[in-house]
Amino acid sequence: MSEKTAEQLGDALASAIHSQDGKKLSQLTEDVKVIDSNGNETGQTKPRFILKPSAYLDIKAYIAAGLAFPATAEDFHTLHPKENLKKLTELDATIYEDTQLAMAGIHKSSSDFNTTALPNFRRITNEAKQYANTAILQLTGFGKGSFQGLLKLLTDNKYSKPGSEDTDEFRGASQAASMILLNLGEESLKKAQTIEDLSKTITSYLTTLKTDKDRIDGINQRYSGKSTTLTTGLEKLRADIKKAVEDANEADAKYKSDKATADNAVYYIWVPIAGWIAGTTVLMVHNKRAQEAHDKYEAAKKTQAEKETEKLYMERLIVDVELLDSQNKNIAKLMDSAKTALEGIRKIFEGIGNDLKEASSLMGNADSLLRGGLWVRQNMLVDRVNEAVADWRKVVTAADDFLDAEASVLGITDSVVPPKVG
């Protein structure tokens, strides 16, 4: 303590109450432009919490998308009937079941996150809001008993001279101010720990996402590999359909031609040159050809319908697998950003807690150095208290905005629209 000058002590107190290096309290929020319902700027700004409402809603949307994937083998079969995916199982005997398991895995991990982790975004925001309200009250809200009130007493003119600090009033006020800072510091460190604990349930999902990704990558590779691929199967299927259509058209044309000949042959029977036997033979032959052509035509139409159905179900499955991959990649990016923000919040509260505990220690020594530091930096200290309160008020406003986001900000950005699955 004796190594510090009065000015240095005052500066240390001011910095602890409200850091000016931009690395503490002010980073809990950022000012953003206010946009009206028509998408136009209003010229106003408002504070936004470090956990952006849109990012939270994006994560919530992708969790909802994950919950849309089939949870059971029965659900999967309802969406993607195995009997309509013969080409798929011919190419890969186990891919149907493995795809079902991958989708069920996404559903389960999304369900677990939705239940145990997603609510913690709101809990963390509420923890920050609670502390902000406490800080505002302790710093300025209790009149003469607030830190600001005690600071005013400690910087009264009667304590302007050396030795004037040697009174019960000065010592009592400095101890009371010290306790306020100590309590705020300890509470901030507790919040940091609580936020860390709550964050772990959120960020642990990144491990689950990695497991999901490995499973999805394995499935995806089997749908888009270079050897026996489903893409190749689809091309073959489209070729089969084209051939079925061509064969059907050819059979139909042949049928119409032969039928016309057979109809005419009924007349030719009575032509003396043809004779009865000849005419009967022509009629029977052409009727047989017509029937065969017709049967082939009907079979070709059925084959075409079956192939079209198979292609439809196969392409639907591929779309869902692509959505599975997209859902996993997008939420992984969002979770990486959330992890950074959550760690930032924890560090901010940890830093504030340590700073305030140090400030408490400085305030607790009711000596001439403290008196001198408070006296020479009294204007700065008052400004820092006011700045801290203003920033904590921003935190409350931003936190309220975040906590109300579900009700009033849903769909605030295009990216919040949940992806459609199935």
Keywords summarizing the entry:
disordered C terminus, 422 residues
Strand order of the largest sheet: 1-2
Strand composition percent: under 5%
Shape: rod-shaped
* pLDDT averaged over residues: 78
Distance between the termini: 68 Å
H/E element string? Answer: HEEHHHHHHHHHHHHH
**Major sheet size, sense and barrel closure:** 2 strands, antiparallel
**Radius of gyration from the alpha-carbon trace, in angstroms:** 39 Å
Number of strands: 2
The secondary-structure class comes to mainly alpha
Question: Can you tell me the residue ranges where pLDDT is under 50 for at least 5 consecutive residues?
Answer: 263-286, 407-422
Helix content: over 70%
Number of helices: 14
